[in-house]
Amino acid sequence: MSVIKPFQFLSKTQIEDIANDLLMRMQGTPNFPRWPGLADYAAGFLDLSIDPCCDIPPYNGKAVAARIYPLTRLIEISKYLHKKKDNDIGFEQSTLAHEIGHWVLHVNQDEADGLVQQLELPLFCEATEDVFLCRNVSEMLVDKVSPKTQADWIEWQAQYFASCLLMPRYILEEKRRGRDLTNWRHLYAMAEDLGVTISNLTNRLQDVGWIYIPKGSKQIYLGNTIPNGQQSLF
Fold it and tell me: What CATH code is assigned to 169-234?
């Protein structure tokens, strides 16, 4: 068997259920879910180590934000993230949650652990430790991506998982109390409480149908209905 699972189509509901299952399993452990910093606690629960400031070379001429090594359970985060001015913590949390998404959805964890055990035996055994996927530095927004290839779908799945993990519905319900979702100042305060970027938050709120922001506009509407009565598509 391969360390990487065969490609499988996963719906939004399936991915959200998988993210919620991870949050449930974290309950009652030293890494119980809490915000901000949820991705760090999830990595700790999954026994994934993090190198937060790596010099990761470009991939196909493009900067890379992070990469994961399944056999060593290591996630490397590019030092580039520490140079970003727009909510460094939020983008780093999204990037880390994205790589956790790859680990949960796309890595055959039993096979990876089995290969590590073989390598620890006093026998000659060949095994590769190829990097599993990379994430481009450009922030991926799940509602603005049109997956065409299996690689596109895999990246989309990991990012949708990250969105569900960092912003589960029950936490959104908690953080919206006493706040006006059509007020940008209130949304920025929510994003800070959750430890995510404002684009992460508004993308998630639109995905669950709580708000709608017309393309190219800063106007926020409640629900997923455009003022002229048409339904938004996302």
Answer: 1.10.10
